[in-house]
Structures are given as C-alpha cells and as structure tokens.
Amino acid sequence: MSLIEVKVPSPGESISEVIIANWLVKDGDYVENGQVMAEIDSDKATLELAAEASGSIKIVAQAGDTVAVGGVACTIDTSAAKPAGAPASPAKKEETKVATPAPKAAEKAPATSYASGTPSPAAAKLMAEQGVTAAQVSGTGPGGRITKGDVLAAMAAGFDTASVASHSGARTERREKMTNLRKKISERLVSVKNNTAMLTTFNEVNMKPIMDLRAKYKDVFKEKHGVGLGFMSFFTKACAEALFAFPAVNARIENGEIVYHDYTDIGIAVSSPKGLMVPIIRNSEMMGLADIERNIGELAKKVRDGKITVDEMQGGTFTITNGGVFGSMLSTPIINPPQSAILGMHNIVERPVAENGQIVIRPIMYVALSYDHRIIDGRESVSFLVKVKDMLENPERMLFGGKSAEEVLLGL
Questions:
Q1: Which of 74, 79, 146, 192 has the fewest CB atoms within 10 Å, measured from its CB?
Q2: Does any domain span residue 96?
C-alpha cells in the first residue's frame, strides 16, 4: 500500500486554520489526479482541495471540522486499482452521457431528468442547506445540469417571491454554526466602529448624462469590447481621478504614520451567499471603462462561483459598494479596514429638481462617502464627493483628471 497525505493548503499568510465545508467524494471512492475532492472555507475565501494523485481516498477530516493549515484532510492509496469500467474523470463521464443518443423511452422522461436540470452532488447539498428548489435555479452545466455555481448565482441575484413556497406557520427554530468568513466579517465591522472616527457625508448625482451616454453607445461598446457598459465603471473611473486630487482619501494610518499611495487599487464590494467580499481592481487609474468592466465582471463571477483567491481581495486603497442593486435609497457604508474611506452607491429614482428656474424630472442617485475623520478632514471628504459628482454629471471630465477641456486648454 502506498499512501499520500493530502494536506490543507494555505489560503494566505494571515490564516492559520480552515473549515472543511463539503466533501464532493465519499470515503473509499476512486479519485483521479487533479480531481476536486472538497471545498474549504477560510475567513476570506472558499478554496478547492484537489487530489494530488489517482487512487482510493480515505477521509480524515470530516465536513464541518476545523483543520489547521498544513493538517491532513485525507489520504490517497495510490496502489488501489481503478474500478473496472470507471470513466477517466467526472468531466468525461458527463460529456459521454450528454453525447450518447437518448433512447426513445427517454422522450417521456419527467421534468426532473438529467438533461432538464438535475443538480450535481455539490449543488444538491447547497440547495438542501439553503432551502432552494430546482425550479428556482437555471442549470448551465452539461445537458442543463445544475452546478454549484448556478445555485450561488441564483442566490446572489435573489428569488421571485412567486417562486417561494407559502409559509407553513410552524414555529420552529434552527441553529447554524457561523462560518469563518462570517466570523471575520463580524470582527472587522465591530473593530471599524470601535477604532475609527467614522463619519458620512452625502450628495446627489444627476445620472441623466451617463444614462444618455450608455443609451447612445452601449451597442457599439459591447460589439467592440465584448463587455457591457455599466454604471460601476463610470464610478470607478471618477473615484480613481478624484483620489489623486485628494490623496488623504486614498491613504491609511499605520503605526502612527499616514501611508499615501500613488496608485488606486479600488475594491468593488460583491454580495455572495457566503457574505460580502471585496475583490480589487488594481491600478484602476490606468484603465479605460472597458478594462474596468472586464475586470469587474471576471472578479464578480469568481466571487459568486466561490473561485476568488485571497490575493485578489488584499491590498485595496479605497472601496465602492452598491446597495442600489437591492433597492437601497440611502445608507452609511462601513469603512473596509485598513482603508480610510468607502463610497456607497444607491438606487436611481426619478425626482423633481430645479434647473435654470424650471422644475424638471431627472434620474437621481444619492451617494454617501464614509470616511475616517482621524485622517480625512470635512473639507477633503466633501470636496472629494463633489468632484466625483461633477465628473459623473460631466463624463468628459474623466479624460482630463476632473477638468473640463476648456480648463485644460487654458492651463487652469
């Protein structure tokens, strides 16, 4: 017998232990080299545990167990013979099943057949834990199979109330152990409230110029760049320019010193079923709108699929969060430490406003900037938000560091 110990990998230098969230194989199963066997939750991200060799698996750490980084999760007996008739890998098994012509009897198969949306083992476990039904999820796997990523995406997007089962009236309770990620989020939020002089300033943005710009160019933009043109790229670009004008908003306090950054690594808060995560758009000041949209799309997908890495969420200098996608009118976002400020976006509502002495209806968004008053004064915070507002209402200013073409021409 030749055994290989599969140890828990390190998610990051500051993480010492993880939780085995879910085994995707059973004790005694034959696994292929590179096959994903389990999912691991850390306090920052969800990782996958892959087989380091082919053989028969012996599970050491059970689902729900807390294991130190470097601890043994399972062993693989590489001398075990591969079962006769076993497929080369799970992926090939699914491909073969989809490619094989279905018998005529299958035409009368019920709606729960494989091709119409049967969940994978990992997806089925998550659906059972979260009370999600197959009718609430659209499968994108081979033959329409529901994957874990499909379930996470559906949960992140929310469900239509019409698809939710009626309440039974039962007065039951249930308890669930807090995940490492939820514990860490709780600790960080309390720490921010206790250790910073947090204050919030507000303003409103007339979104009509950006909405008109999107309506005019969204089709050609998508055709040329392969990505949609959303509001987040405009806000990210505007913030990147404004951060250079007000460097304290882009700074942090460390060991009694103020650390200024000559770059803008902007975090974009993304909601996932496991909690709020903030992947980083690095050197956003160097990017155009298409690059920003592409990066946001890729990172958000990784978050919802549970594929985001710790490195992709570390080192941000400023954060943007969008509660408007959930219908929020106004909020006071909490700073993401060790950063010193965060911008909150909200929903867009048509409101009456005065323009040139006339009452007109405009699509208005309220924006909020929460900041650490220890490092950022009121003048800087208000001026920063006004500058962001000005660039959003005059998008051409983003080309010239927040100035108009006339101001650049005149050297003002």
A1: 79
A2: no
In this structure, are 66 and 124 located in the same domain? no
Written as six digits, the tokens of 310 are 């710790």
The verdict on residue 173 lying in a domain is no
pLDDT tens-place string over residues 109-158: 333 334 456 777 667 767 776 777 777 888 777 667 787 777 877 777 76
Q: Is 261 a catalytic residue?
A: no
Strand partners, 56: 30, 77
Q: How many CA atoms lie within 13 A of 354 on its CB side?
A: 2
Instruction: Verify that 153 and 274 share a domain, yes or no.
Output: no
pLDDT at 362: 96
Kind plus residue range of the DSSP H or E element containing 31: strand 30-31
The answer to the question of residue 362 being in a domain is: yes
> Of these residues, 27, 65, 219, 377, which one is catalytic?
377
* 236 and 145, same domain (yes or no): no
Calculate mean pLDDT across residues 297-315. Answer: 85
Element (H, E) at 197: none
Output the pLDDT for position 66. 84
CA 379 vs. chain centroid, Å, equals: 32
- Give me the CATH number covering residue 54: 2.40.50.100
How many C-beta neighbours within 10 Å does residue 22 have? 19
Q: Provide the number of structural domains found in the chain.
A: 3
Residues 335 and 242 in one domain: yes
Section 194-205 average pLDDT: 95
Looking at the structure, do residues 263 and 398 belong to the same domain, yes or no?
Answer: yes
* C-alpha–C-alpha distance, residues 57 and 62, integer Å: 13
Question: What is d(CA 290, CA 397) in angstroms, rounded to the nearest whole number?
Answer: 17
Catalytic residue among 27, 43, 373, 390: 373
Mean pLDDT confidence for 96-115: 41
Give a yes or no: residue 103 inside a domain. Answer: no
377 a catalytic residue: yes
Which residues, including other chains, have CB under 8 Å from residue 177's CB and lie 6 or more apart? Answer: 64
